[in-house]
Write a structure and sequence with these properties.
The chain is α+β, with helices and mostly antiparallel strands. 21% of the residues lie in helices and 8% in strands. A two-stranded antiparallel ribbon has the order 1-2. The model has no long low-confidence stretch (mean pLDDT 81).
Length: 48
């Protein structure tokens, strides 16, 4: 979902989605983000 003003001249950057999990653990991009943020986990509830 995108919320934007009509006829706005502000530049917009669309980023690729971050998928934190790959197969058995965190993906390389997520690991790099956690390393830079000095954290090792995210807290969320994942529904089966």
């Amino acid at each position: 979902m995108i919320h934007a003003r009509r006829d706005s001249r502000a530049k917009t950057v669309t980023l690729a989605p971050l998928i934190p999990f790959e197969d058995e653990g965190y993906g390389s991009e997520a690991r790099e983000i956690f390393k830079n943020a000095r954290t090792h986990t995210i807290k969320c509830q994942i529904d089966p």
